[in-house]
Amino acid sequence: MYQQIRRLIKFTIALTAVLSGSVLAQSTERGEARERIDPYGWVYGAALNVNQQLYKGFEQRTMLFPLIGYRGKRFELYGPFMRYRLADAGNWQFSANVSPRFNGFEAEDSPTFEGMEKRKTSLDAGFGARYEWNDYRFSVNGMADVLNASSGTELSAGFSKVYNVGPIFIEPNISISSQDAELVDYYYGVRSDEVRDNRPQYSADSAVNITYGISVMTPIFFNGLARVMLQYTDFDTAITDSPLVEGNSGVSMMLMYSKML
Question: Structure pTM?
Fold first, then answer.
């Protein structure tokens, strides 16, 4: 509990810094900028995701996959990520969301997992609310595992601001997520029948994680839209105390390029 309170204090301090800072240049109104670089319609392209893993002996997961997407006034699809706008109320938008959860491992991924049951990737679905004012965005989301891999849930809140530098759009962001014990224990716990001499039993509690990120987007390359997203996550001790884990933070990167059909 003490560690979670500390993390909430860190998040509040960092969020205040983002809110009070002006780091790049004067921004354009977000709605006009979004329409200009990300219009309605079908898109195609590719995405590369590199995710540093916390697990011992399993340093990173790299995935390259084709990207098919669609952006409409209410429905958005980008690869396996889906969002449907349910209602608007002033600057608030309410939506139903679907997104994959790329956690998980198999015994052959690392000697650390020898004799352990596979932990599956899964699919989360839930609801979110987003508030937008000029170039500022605040969002809250609640997601639950709909494939019953972990049967866990996650609540998150995030803040971001868009800065416009010529044809380049830069969006620093910060978010905090609360994962319940079922979710954390499924991916980082060690069951009684999985105990080994160097792997004690471990039952994980709920976790509060903080993520700092930046997204850069531009339409200047080959008549398409290029995105780069970097994230750094500071993980709760409920995760980092697991005998499966080494380190207390992780970095991920996503590269995407898409064009209109």
Answer: 0.81
